[in-house]
Amino acid sequence: MRPSRVLLTFIAVLALVLPSLAACAPAPAPTPTPAPKAAEKPAEAKPAEQAKPAPTPTPVPAPSPTPTVAAKPAAPSRLVIVMGQQPDTLHPGIGSMMAKTEVEYALFAWPVVFNDKGEYIPWGVEQVPTLDNGGARFVGEGDDRHLEVTYKIKKGNKWHDGTPVTAKDMRYQWELYLDPKFPIADRSLIQKVYDVTVVDEQTAVYKFMSARQAREAAQKGFRGLDAKEYADFKDQKDPVVDPLYWTVGGYLPSHILSKIPADQQEASEFARKPIGNGPYKFKEWVPDQSITLEANPDFFLGAPKIQTVVFRIIKDTNAQLAALQAGEVDVVTQVQGPDLDKAPELDRLAAQGTYKPYYIPGTPWEHIDFNLDNEHLKDVRVRKAIAHAINREQLVEKVLYGKSRVAHSWIMPGSPAWAYDESCLVKYEYNPEKAKQLLAEAGYKPGPDGILVKDGKKLTLKLSTTDAALRKTTAQIIQQQLKQVGIDLQLEFLPGRGLFETKGPLRQRTFELGMYTWLSLPDPDRIDYMHSKNIPSPANNFTGNNFPGWRNPKADQLAVRGSQSLSEKERKPIYCELQRLWTDELPVLPLFQRVVVTVARANLENYRPTGSSTPETWNIHEWVLRS
Amino acid sequence: MGTFLLRRLIQTVVLLLIISAFVFFLINLAPGGPFDALVFGSPRVSQAHLERLNQLIGLDKPWYIRYFSWLRNVVVGDWGTSWGVAYGQPVLTVIAERLPATVLLMGTALLLSLLIALPIGIYSALRQYSWVDYVVTALSFFGIAMPTFWFGIMLIIIFAVVLKDTPFQLPTGGMMTPGMGFDLADRVRHLILPVAVLSLFNVAQWSRFMRSSMLEILNQDYMRTARAKGLREQVVILKHGLRNALIPIITIIGLEIPALVSGAVVTEFIFSWPGMGQVFFQAVFASDWPVVQGIVVITACVVILSNLLADILYAVADPRIRYS
Questions:
Q1: In this complex, which of A78, A288, A497 lies closest to B98 when CB atoms are compared?
Q2: Contact call for A267 and B90, based on CB within 8 A
Q3: Mean of the per-residue pLDDT values for chain A?
């Protein structure tokens, strides 16, 4: 045979063999999760928008979890949950990735959980300890007066190796989290605790610092932590409190971890293969691929109905969509998941009836910081003009597909409910005429190219933000809208790191307008960006988040009083007044609430995503796949 | 040859030192550390706390001091610990966990590409200007121009979604079905699409190289001599032609070997393949400098050594070349 014939034959054989390799490979193993039939009912016109009010912090006293019956072993079944990122560790105390929190809530059952209704509910303990129900109380007099918070661990709350969870485990967690060598992400709450007393097996008392102890810590440091980390308490006169004091309690398996020094915990086996007390036990972690968990039949709140849970890492959002359309996965979490630009595809998927997307206005809120030291922006009329010139309703319609709402304050509706009060807010409706009027009052006249000019200087401003697709679209729309009133807005897109780093424009206060997202906590206290002492500068080592540079002595006073009081009655008028000042002087223009997007199978019951930093998996033991 | 090798090896060590220092310096010019954005997720964190977190991973010292510590540790086998991708895990472990997956993917793509590209290239050359040649040429241009990220997603949509519930359905990504033990058929099915994407570009390129190399050889005088001597066509093409045409191909393959280690970021990302490319990408975005430094140095090492290997093979294949 001629060589060319040989070659041709060879190529032809390859061309036939390769595809048939695919065809002849055994058919895909049928996914154990029952594939739901096509929609029986007509497709919903719009996916159910979860118009839930964002969370309130009032703790709910009476517990009502699923009754602790003797668990029947669940019928073998499997759920595949997608995350766009993998956790950097599974140690509960290290790192702050949402990816970790999703898996963590399946492995651990913490004392108190913040649920989808915005309530703090008792999970691992008998009740959420508050001043109202007596679980927390003030003890002592004068300089030694301090807050004591008592936790009573539920019977049956056990680690996966059978050892019961005890008060010693609570004390151990406090010791570890205060160890200077332990790389905990955020100890701002727990560092306020002076001691944790073990009363008996089930009961632990957390004692917050008294004024005297706090001042001492600000002088000499505490348990190896630097005095610098207690600088706020230099002149403390009242007992140290925190508006979310009932969330301070936690536990870790001390019988395993106390053997490992604080600086070696990150490298320990526990950090990659944790032993928890939650509805699922750790089975396997294939790096960058999947984390597999098995049901814990002895879970004290009731055995989970689904036997195996697999967290699958799919990084690309298009690949995530394809996995949904191919029916390979059951749940897609918010962790680097599809953003709102995929909403049309998700709604199409919903119309087929197999999956249900959830769009939840979440606690993160998008906003624009004004740098109050800028020559133009220091005039409040310019800031108000900008507020009137931006059509925020249109932004929500166009950029968020109408699945969110405009924000008017740093407090979201319902977050907490007692603090959000429309009557306390100055609102800015879309009114370009009013904007032009304000600018004219401020002394600006239109120049030959339509851009406003004052004292020979053009009204040119620069908006700095990150290069995420949603932000770029938002920024460009705002640019157009400001042009209508004569403001020339330049846009600067930086990578996330570039905007947020210590040497970046926000912290160094070299920005003019900055657009980014803040989390709204379930408490209105944001002294970190309200108070003038929190304006980052060389003098204070660039501490604080008051990037606009807002200096208002009345606001300072109110912010301090609000952060130190625990009484809702006392705080309500304080935050009403603070919101009035803030929305009137407008150091920050709130834009809209960000939306948490998550997708789950239509037949997955009890899937209750929250929109807060509590992950979708918080009640995973209640999830049921109906066939 | 011996002196040549010795010289090259010394050059390798010097090069690696320069590269590692330069990369370390460049990395540290990049803005921010791993904890800078922490306050945006945890607003109550104080600057003093951030400083302590930085101190725990050694970021409070200037870059040149950190470089010498790194160098000193590397010599005894400690490449540092990750502080982004896998907090607390040794860098070498992070790399070792991803290397096999990368080698499997890139190695399979390499082999398959060679098996397809070489015969196609040779046939194109033998049958220059035939319709097969034109078709192959057109497909080659298509393959070279096709962006990986688009082509990859298209393949996923076709084979996972459109062909759903048919025997031709393929998985959307990953190296294996989670929960399944080692199952050869499962692994092969997961390999098909990413290998296809990677191979497309390689086949397109290498078949062109093979074709032009072969064409050049076919026009040589000694080919005419061989035929004139009365040798069979097969022997003429394979023994006298192909052997010589393969020489430039050796160089090309030599340059491809580093890809076995460094992986292909876009393909790995799209197919969620747990390889070196995507972990490098992750590490850069997480400001995980120890992992970035580790991967860059290892890749540099492989590049230098594979160039050396290509040079040696070149000398072996071509008797006209001798090193001194």
A1: A288
A2: yes
A3: 88
Is the confidence at residue A492, as pLDDT, over 90? yes
Using CB atoms, which residue from B132, B160, B167 is nearest to A322?
B160
To test the contact with chain B by mutation, choose from A88, A325, A366 the residue with the greatest count of B C-beta atoms within 10 A, namely A88
Question: How many whole angstroms separate alpha carbon B147 and alpha carbon B128?
Answer: 28
Residues of A in contact with B84 (CB under 8 A): 88
Across A403-415, average pLDDT = 90
Nearest to B31 among A96, A287, A504 (CB): A504
Whether residue B233 lies within 8 A of chain A, CB to CB, comes out as: yes
- Is there a contact between B287 and B33 (Cβ–Cβ < 8 Å)? yes
Task: Give the pLDDT mean for A443-459.
Answer: 91
Provide the pLDDT for residue B128: 84
CB contact under 8 A, A518 and B278: no
Q: Are A411 and A464 in contact (CB under 8 A)?
A: no
SS3 state of residue B226: helix
Q: A40 pLDDT exceeds 50?
A: no
Mean pLDDT on A546-568: 93
198-227 in B: which are within 8 Å (CB) of A? none
pLDDT (0 to 100) of residue A623: 95
A77 domain residue, yes or no:
no
Mean per-residue pLDDT, B204-215: 89
User: Is B56 in Cβ contact with A496 (below 8 Å)?
Assistant: no
Give residue B142's pLDDT band: very low, low, confident or very high (50, 70, 90).
confident
Judge whether A549 and A372 are in contact, CB under 8 Å.
Answer: yes
Q: Enumerate the residues of chain A whose CB falls inside 8 A of the CB of residue B35.
A: 185
CA angle (B64, B70, B74) in 5-degree steps: 150
Q: Do A519 and B89 touch (CB under 8 A)?
A: no
pLDDT (average), residues A43-60: 38
Dihedral over Cα of B311, B312, B314, B320: its sign: positive
Rounded Cα distance between A600 and A603, Å, is 8
* Residue A512, pLDDT above cutoff 60: yes
* Of B132, B237, B287, Cβ closest to residue A497: B287
Q: What integer pLDDT is reported at residue A169 of this predicted model?
A: 97
- Sheet with A452-454, strands from edge to edge, namely A445-446, A452-454, A457-458
Residue of B nearest to A13 (CA): B116
Report yes or no on A565 lying in a domain: yes
pLDDT digits (tens, 9 = 90+) for B223-259: 888 888 888 888 888 888 888 888 888 888 888 899 8
CATH number at residue A497: 3.10.105.10
CB contact, 8 Å: B119 with chain A? yes
Report the predicted TM-score, pTM, of the whole model to 2 decimal places: 0.86
- Reported confidence tier of residue A62, pLDDT bands at 50, 70, 90: very low
In Å, how far are B48, B115, B291 from A266, measured between CA atoms?
21, 46, 16
Asked if the model's pLDDT at residue A514 lies above 60, the reply is yes
Q: What is the mean pLDDT of residues A223-231?
A: 92
Residue type, B170: L
The total number of structural domains that make up chain A: 1
| Domain enclosing residue A422, as ranges | 366-593
Is residue A379 included in any domain, yes or no? yes
Residue A461 has pLDDT above 60, yes or no: yes
DSSP string, B38-87: HHHHSTT--HHHHHHHHHHTTTTS-HHHHHHHHHHHHHTT---B-SSSST
Say whether A267 and B286 touch across the interface (CB within 8 A): no
* A14, A323, A545 member nearest B43 (Cβ): A545
Is B88's CB within 8 Å of A266's CB? yes
Using a CB-CB cut-off of 8 Å, the residues of chain A touching B279 are 288
Residue A564 in domain: yes
